[in-house]
Write a structure and sequence with these properties.
This protein has helices at residues 9-17, 21-26, 40-48, 61-81, 89-100, 106-115, 120-141, 148-157, 171-200; strands spanning 29-33, 36-39, 203-205. With 208 residues, it is mainly α.
């Protein structure tokens, strides 16, 4: 989402009141997370730019993206609090090119940015925030794709749990099952942690 820290809900509402009715519909406020505003155009941008992994054709796509943006803001606030470093500029430019490459041509890409009120610098900031969020989660919970040594260590501590028909199953045979379990446990740990952040943060949701 675009940086709005410090704007405050009343200030944003004042800006929207001064805009044409069509713009108000596009930028209606969906949530405020610890002072940061999330609008309909934020949800549209993240969905259409493919930044969330949510299928745009899903019936609940917009709701899932909104929840993803709320969670992402909570995580980013933690990264900000602990002074997580910005990623290299080259990494952001590479990510920007990857997003642009999802469109049939640059005109389509530019059209979406214009429709959602994003500039290239806005998108760079979004990608920078996403990279910082991912870096923070990796530092706190480990890599999304566990290393082979970590999988083997997990297996050796719980080999009996991966036995088949009561007989031990070697690591190589059980590797994919071990990998899936480790990744599921990581995701569950992150979900529990974010849920705790949400319980302690001021979050306001508005009717869509």
């Amino acid at each position: 989402m675009r940086p709005r820290r410090g704007a405050g809900l009343l200030a944003v509402l004042g800006l929207l009141a001064a805009e044409p009715a069509e713009a108000q519909v596009l930028d209606r406020i969906l949530a405020v997370v610890a002072g940061d505003v999330i609008t309909a155009s934020d949800v549209e941008a993240f969905l259409e730019l493919g930044l969330t992994g949510v299928d745009p054709g899903a019936a609940d796509a917009e709701e899932r993206v909104l929840e993803r943006l709320i969670d992402g803001r909570l995580v980013l606030d933690e990264a900000d609090r602990l002074l997580t470093e910005d990623p290299p500029a080259a990494r952001i430019e590479t990510a920007l090119e990857e997003v642009a490459a999802r469109f049939s041509d640059r005109d389509d890409f530019a059209s979406l940015l214009a429709r959602t009120g994003l500039s290239l610098d806005d998108l760079r900031q979004i990608l920078r925030d996403e990279a910082r969020r991912e870096s923070y989660l990796r530092a706190r919970f480990g890599a999304p794709e566990p290393a082979d040594d970590d999988l083997r260590a997990y297996y050796e501590q719980r080999a009996d749990e991966f036995a088949e028909d009561g007989r031990p199953n070697g690591f190589e045979a059980a590797r994919e099952a071990v990998r899936q379990r480790v990744m599921t446990l990581r995701e569950a740990e992150i979900e529990d942690w974010i849920a705790d952040l949400a319980r302690r943060a001021p979050i306001a949701r508005f009717d869509r």
